Amino acid sequence: MAAGKESPWDSVRDAIAGSRTLTLRTAAYLPRERAHIDRILGAFLAAAGMHGLKNKLSYCIHELAGNAKKANTKRLFFRDRKLNIDNPFDYTAGMALFKAEMIQRADYFQQRLRDENLYVTFQFRTVRNGVQITVRNNAEITTDEQRRIRQKLAIVERFNCLADAYSISEDNAEGAGLGIVMMLFMLKTLGFGSDAFDVRPVKGETVATLTLIDPQSRAQGPGSVTA
Hints:
By secondary structure, the protein is of the alpha+beta class. It has one domain (about 10-220): Histidine kinase-like ATPase, C-terminal domain (Heat Shock Protein 90, 2-Layer Sandwich), CATH 3.30.565.10. It is built from nine helices and six strands. It has helices spanning about 10-15, 30-45, 55-80, 90-105, 105-115, 145-160, 160-165, 180-190, 215-220, and strands spanning about 20-25, 120-125, 130-135, 175, 195-200, 205-215. The two termini are about 25 Å apart.
């Protein structure tokens, strides 16, 4: 996992100082990679005056990255099983087996992700009064997956109590489906607006973006994203 030819921390400092995008890509997403992302997140949040939010925002980044790696792995699994991920019947049949096989054959899928160049890309950049973080993977989100995320967004908008949101957000197709609800609820309780999270397909990738404008600056007026 590298950010360029110079040392990683020179790249981080230069990106922050110059308001440039720092990009990192990995096929793995193991404890070493997670720790590295945490350190970079801390540096960008500190530059934006939001270092106190690091632990909670770290959860959000890891949730997105974990989902991105899972999506890549899911594509491999469906391809191996000769199932069409866009077919509702194939999808239901595949997901009934996917979770257990992903755990039981973790090393196999990890190598396959490398061999097939299925990656997770992180992009960090400072914006006015905040930080923008993008997590990309090269397995395009399906229409049905987008629909389930929109349902979770609506649930979080509707409820102020996490327990109430959990009670109606179980997603049998994706397991409990509570990780994304927890992430959205955390963003909400931290004071970030409904526009803080966006996910969409872009040219063969799934692009999930967190635009984290300091809640204190939001209270003073709308923040704007600038390069």
